[in-house]
Amino acid sequence: MSQGSRSARERSRTGSRKVAVVGVALSDCGRVDDATPYALHAQAARRVLADCGLPRHAIDGFASAGLGTLAPAEVADYLGLRPTWVDSTSVGGATWEVMAAHAADAIAAGHARAVLLVYGSTARADLKTGRRTANLSFGTRGPLQFETPYGHTLIAKYAMAARRHMHQYGTTLPQLAEIAVQARANAARNPEAMYRAPVTVDDVLSGPVIADPFTKLHCCIRSDGGCAVLLAAEDYVADTATAPVWVLGSGSAVSHTAMSEWEDFTVSPAAVSGRAAFARAGVSPADIDFAEIYDAFTYMTLVTLEDLGFCPKGEGGAFVEKGRLTIDGELPVNTDGGGLSACHPGMRGLFLLVEAVRQLRGEAGERQVRRAGGGLPELAVASGTGGWFCSSGTLVLGRG
Q1: CA of residue 201 relative to chain centroid, distance
Q2: Computed from CA positions of residues 202, 198, 394, 102, in that sequence, does the dihedral angle turn out positive or negative?
Q3: What is the pLDDT of residue 112?
Q4: Which of 19, 122, 253, 297 has its CA 20 to 30 A from that of 128?
């Protein structure tokens, strides 16, 4: 056993073992009419093992949500896995950042060695074929029973919050539209993005209204697709085919369920999760080279940028102007095109981690982010949001 391996094992016994993302992969995405969600899970899982070069038997931890009666047991069984550490946390779009944080903690403590996170959905295909209908709300039980009868749909909750920000801080619709325009500009450089044709602010503003003030292009697309992320202990890194991306810090938070219990519509739980993640990583927002942010709606991007500390509260509208969020901008955001243009098959948070790792490894091709001088980025933040700003998970990732 090498000295480095002995040191890694010693750190695992003291609960301080370093954790890296050693593999990432996408399944087929976009329009996938001939696959089941299980097949997309399996495809992404096979591809992530091919990406990192580890054998399947190396996986002893598994995390999954959103599929099966007994997730993750049912999905693990389908994949032929028998994990000894599992997680089925489900907090909406933030699920995967929270799961990744749980997995990193478990690996650092020696409770697992390699944890697979995998997701797959055929939301678009299921709607197209009538296997499901569009969901306007998350249900009518519990606290939601007091809002659902009044037509307070999921999108209406985000629209209401956006209107509050506009009223309180003077944020404008053209500023929100800029987020959609710049997401599409990034998607234009991503051959895997579902929509790549450029759009303008006027295109966004003139589209059909979905929920005031959101028009169609303020809202995420609906796609099929899946992806996988494999986290592993530092002593596996020497055996992997790709450069490690280290998990430097994480944070999570939940805020509210009913809108009536949300103290401030202009503040998301990312204000808590982001602060914790940056503090644990020992970095500040100023150190970050690019950000991957959950963007089911344009307002989510704007308010999360504020709450992560990239600009003061209320100044997000001005911050997102002038191309700042594009690949070549001051703070590239959602470099693959995000949920607004690349893909959005449901709980999109895991896709944020895939794109962040690809960027840090220098594998993003035409959309590759570069630091001043042409070097690869060093630090990234991925921040997922669940529900209607009900939950948040934030990770800071760094290149080896």
Answers
A1: 25
A2: positive
A3: 97
A4: 297
